[in-house]
């Protein structure tokens, strides 16, 4: 059984649209667990009233993304899940999204899969995976290297985000859950998928499965939209900071090849210290 796990905190309009899109799936044999981490906008009550088929797990208000996802995964595993799909609430799944993800999952049962992401407003592709160089700290964006006729099927990548990530349960048995202690919010998904790949689980973007996203709604984009010294501090040290130096250090020490760690850290620190004001 496939379980879909969605961590939420407020922003009911996004959660509602996401869950409606799941109701419209052509393949409906799955269960949904929403982890409501102390929402104050009535999300918990609306979930139980408007979506009675959804199981709600209540959080403490301090789970953030990683612990929230883990809470939902633990609940799914207790109920016998054989695959888990982590999903953010600010996405809308195409009607055949689940079917197209499971099509490849059944053919490659040990693979982790992520979708091609489209801008919800323009329908243009915005994220199609990356191949990352630990030596140069550069990302090869597959959307820039693949010709339009190649944008189908599976393409191997270095890591995947968690906003539409299909995971076979064998991965959890091999490497555990997401690292909520060292990576409470950002980078936990890249860390988890990188570790899974090193343990022999292939990692692919599935260009046949489409997920509509709102790039401008990410925490990093909102912080950079109104740049300030306070925002800069949050960027570097806040739990939701996209450039959090502590999180980056943990990610580097866990995933970068050992001989490249010093250079990788220096490069990464420089990018994070200057990138907030340059991009």
From TrEMBL:
Residues 4-111 form the Glycosyltransferase 2-like domain. The keyword Protein biosynthesis does not apply. It comes from the Bacteria. GO terms for molecular function: glycosyltransferase activity. The keyword Cell membrane does not apply. Keywords: Glycosyltransferase, Transferase. Pfam families: Glycos_transf_2. PANTHER family: GALACTOFURANOSYLTRANSFERASE GLFT2, RHAMNOSYLTRANSFERASE WBBL. Belongs to the glycosyltransferase 2 family. This is Glycosyltransferase family 2 protein.
């Amino acid at each position: 059984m496939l379980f879909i796990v969605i961590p939420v905190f407020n922003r009911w309009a996004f959660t509602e649209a996401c869950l409606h899109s799941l109701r419209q799936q052509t393949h409906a044999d799955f269960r949904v667990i929403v982890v409501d981490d102390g929402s104050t906008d009535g999300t918990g009550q609306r979930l139980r009233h408007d979506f009675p088929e959804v199981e709600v797990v209540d959080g403490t208000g301090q789970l953030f993304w990683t612990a929230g996802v883990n809470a939902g995964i633990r609940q799914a595993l207790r109920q016998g899940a054989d695959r888990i799909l982590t999903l953010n609430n600010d996405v809308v799944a195409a009607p055949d999204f689940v079917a197209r993800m499971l099509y490849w999952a059944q053919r490659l049962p040990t693979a982790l899969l992520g979708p091609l992401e489209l801008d919800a407003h323009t329908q243009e592709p915005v994220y199609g995976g990356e191949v990352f160089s630990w030596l140069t700290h550069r990302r090869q964006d597959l959307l820039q290297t693949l010709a339009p006729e190649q944008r189908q099927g599976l393409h191997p990548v270095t890591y995947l985000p968690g906003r539409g990530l299909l995971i076979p349960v064998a991965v959890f048995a091999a490497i555990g859950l997401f690292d909520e202690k060292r990576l409470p919010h950002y980078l936990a998904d890249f860390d988890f998928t990188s570790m899974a790949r090193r343990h022999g689980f292939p990692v692919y973007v599935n260009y046949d499965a489409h997920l509509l996203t709102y790039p401008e709604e990410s925490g990093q984009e909102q912080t950079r939209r109104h740049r300030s010294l306070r925002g800069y501090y949050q960027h570097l040290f806040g739990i939701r900071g996209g450039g959090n130096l502590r999180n980056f250090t943990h990610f580097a020490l866990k995933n970068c090849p050992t001989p490249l760690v010093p250079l990788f850290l220096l490069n990464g620190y420089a990018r994070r210290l200057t990138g907030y004001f340059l991009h």
